[in-house]
Design goal:
heterodimer, A: 11 helices, 1% strand, B: alpha/beta, Rossmann fold, Alpha-Beta Plaits, 2 domains, six-stranded mixed beta sheet, four-stranded antiparallel beta sheet, 11 helices, 14 strands, 30% helix
Chain lengths: 277, 312
């Protein structure tokens, strides 16, 4: 590097990467909060669905003492987490690729990791928003009677799921044509949510879907969350057995996340090479 | 001799069989304001993308401040206004400026940037509420918010009307006055003449000429003569110092043309000087009426320079 900086009279030093990250997260949260199609579809809708399908079960209690409302809360929170991860990292990332904004960012000194970290942090904020709103409804209007320890453990699983499924959205965004991404995300996440027991307990699903479920990473995520909320007997009584145990569930969820991270890195590099070539 | 801010050597870029940029050498010193001028498709954007490190050259090297243009250290000192980059819809102007400012090691105050880009009254507007020209100004604001030492502007006025162009170039000049190095591309000669102290003409991916606007005019210093005459085209083309002959449609409102005899044609001559061709015409007994002599515009010089039959 040569040449002195020619700073303008009013120039000030910025505060480095941590401040950059804070600004990035703040601006992502603001952006998505203001996008009605995103905020309503991804944040409000799961809460409304939970209110419709979950709250009417107020008063029902499983043999082990867990309320049915608490179990339905877990299911719809899982659905919220997966849909959010796929939509913000999938559809929206693809849209930004298409608009040339990512290209412009590449001409700035910002490391692209800050960009992805900002989106991930934004997803975590919205996960807390979605799950928080549902839990509040469940507690106030549904007599969910959460145990604080179990609620916090469930929240931890939901945050883990946010981190684990965001790469799946990113992988779709980078592997598919930008215009096809929104359609693909819809095609993927609805069947996934349904077959993983997020809308109805697994036991009520057709046998073929029940057999399919253990092959889906989202099912294992759902089981982790249910196990966090309720003792095994109640999970069994509510919707179906937890086959394989925590270690297997965790391994599948994290393994799937790694596969998606690898696919994203590959897709990102492919696009970077294509753009520069 | 001060170090070069920007140094490109043998820069080439092929797209398949197409040679978009063909072995360009370019050095830009600190504080220079350089226009890269050329017709559409001349290779201006590809050149700027390579200088920015957004595109890999097929061959050749780029050094910016003596370093690699893709390094964060160099990018922290470089600002760019690129074509076809739209900012996120749902943020306000001030929010986007603050966001991009956080990416750079140094920043200008938001107020200052908005003022420099004439966006002070729009700070709370969302991108979707901005007109095309305002978006262009936002793009300029984002290019300067990191207080760059080197600023690239790729066809910055492409979507602006004449009044907006003037205002925009005043903003660029104000930024240049801070001692910044600026390189911009345009296909508009007037802009190059107005803003730049150095004009690099690119055509078919090669540097055609590299000079001051004054020298550029000097390359084809000359006069444009419009007249009515009975000499035919071949005779006119053979006149001393004449570089070009254009037959003009008969002009009913031109002075002396309304009642012109039928054997007179209206022509425009490009010539080094006005006197020799006229003297020859008079000596040959040709009629010359309605004569208007003007200084050749840069636009004419440019068309001449980049036309296929132009001398290289």
């Amino acid at each position: 590097m040569s040449g002195e900086r020619r700073l303008s009279p009013g120039a000030t030093r910025t505060r480095g990467v941590p401040a950059m990250l804070v600004t990035q997260v703040g601006s992502e949260v603001t952006r998505y909060r203001r996008m009605p199609e995103y905020f309503v579809g991804v944040v409000i809708l799961p809460v409304i669905l939970f209110a419709m399908f979950g709250l009417p079960n107020a008063g029902d209690v499983l043999p082990g003492g867990t309320t049915v409302v608490a179990m339905i809360f877990v299911s719809f929170a899982c659905y919220g987490v997966v849909s959010q991860a796929l939509f913000s990292f999938g559809a929206e990332l693809a849209a930004e690729r298409q608009k040339g904004w990512l290209r412009r960012l590449r001409a700035t000194p910002m490391p692209m990791t800050v960009y992805f970290a900002g989106k991930l942090a934004m997803n975590l904020v919205f996960t807390v928003t979605i799950a928080g709103a549902m839990a509040l409804l469940a507690q106030l209007l549904g007599d969910a009677d959460f145990g604080l320890g179990r609620l916090l453990r469930t929240a931890a699983v939901l945050l883990l799921g946010t981190v684990a499924f965001s790469p799946m959205g990113a992988a779709i965004a980078y592997l598919a044509r930008p215009k096809a991404v929104a359609t693909i995300v819809n095609l993927v996440f609805l069947p996934l949510s349904f077959a993983s027991g997020f809308f109805f307990p697994l036991r009520q699903l057709p046998q073929v879907l029940q057999d399919l479920a253990p092959w889906l990473p989202t099912y294992h995520f759902g089981q982790l969350a249910r196990d966090a909320m309720a003792p095994a007997a109640d999970v069994e009584a509510y919707g179906g057995g937890s086959s394989g145990g925590t270690a297997l569930h965790l391994a599948v969820v994290l393994g799937w996340a790694l596969v998606c991270v690898a696919a994203t890195v590959w897709g990102y590099r492919r696009e970077a090479a294509r753009e520069r070539s | 001799m001060p170090a070069h801010v920007l140094e490109a050597l043998g820069l080439s870029r092929h797209f398949g069989d197409v040679v978009a940029v063909d072995s360009i050498d370019l050095q830009v010193g600190e504080g220079e304001v350089v226009a890269v001028l050329g017709p559409n498709g001349a290779g201006k954007t590809t050149t700027i993308e390579m200088l920015l490190g957004l595109r890999t050259p097929t061959s050749g090297t780029v050094r910016v401040f003596g370093g690699d243009p893709t390094s964060a250290a160099v990018r922290g000192r470089v600002g760019a206004m690129l074509q076809d980059t739209d900012a996120p819809d749902s943020l306000t102007v001030a929010e986007i400026v603050d966001l991009v400012a956080a990416y750079y090691p140094y920043r200008l105050a938001t107020e200052d940037v908005l003022e420099r880009a004439s966006l002070t009254g729009h700070r709370r507007r969302r991108v979707t509420q901005l007109s095309g020209g305002e978006r262009q100004r936002l793009s300029f604001a984002l290019a300067i918010v990191g207080d760059p030492d080197l600023l690239y502007l790729d066809e910055p006025t492409a979507s602006l009307d004449v009044g907006a162009r003037r205002a925009f170039w005043r903003q660029v000049q104000a930024f240049a006055a801070l001692g910044k190095t600026i390189l911009f591309s345009t296909h508009n000669l007037e802009e190059a003449d107005l803003v730049a102290e150095r004009v690099v003409i690119i055509d078919h991916g090669r540097i055609h000429s590299d000079s001051t606007p004054r020298e550029l005019k000097g390359l084809l210093a000359g006069r444009t003569l419009e007249l009515l005459t009975d000499a035919d085209e071949a005779e006119l083309a053979a006149l001393p110092g004449v570089r070009g002959v254009t037959l003009l449609p008969a002009d009913p409102v031109g002075p002396g043309a309304d009642a012109g005899p039928a054997d007179l044609r209206r022509v425009r001559l490009q010539a080094a000087d006005a006197t020799p061709p006229l003297r020859t015409l008079f000596a040959a007994g040709r009629r010359v009426e309605g004569l208007v002599v003007t200084e050749a515009t840069l636009e004419e010089a440019f068309v001449h320079l980049t036309s296929p039959e132009a001398p290289r």
